[in-house]
């Protein structure tokens, strides 16, 4: 009597109700969403690694003369022209 419940209906008819067999809808949604998130993360990793191999390194911004002069003064080297 673990899965079956008896409900007497009008007269002598007895209705047997059993639990629905199959996938739990909540579990199915969880698996689909988890699979999509996993696919997204793996795809991002593959694209990132491909871009690291194929794209040239980024160019650095040019350092302004004012900043270069300040760095030289910190290091104790006099800037040219002074």
UniProtKB/TrEMBL annotation:
Transmembrane segments annotated in the record for this chain: 27-51
InterPro entries reported in the protein's UniProt record: S1FA_DNA-bd
Protein name: DNA-binding protein S1FA
Function of the molecule: DNA-binding protein that specifically recognizes a negative element (S1F) within the RPS1 promoter.
Nucleus is among the record's keywords: yes
Chief subcellular location: nucleus
Family: Belongs to the S1FA transcription factor family.
Protein's cellular compartments: Nucleus
Keywords assigned: DNA-binding, Membrane, Nucleus, Repressor, Transcription, Transcription regulation, Transmembrane, Transmembrane helix
Domain of life: Eukaryota
Region (Disordered): 55-82
Ranges of biased composition (kind: Basic residues): 56-72
Species whose genome carries this gene: Hibiscus sabdariffa (roselle)
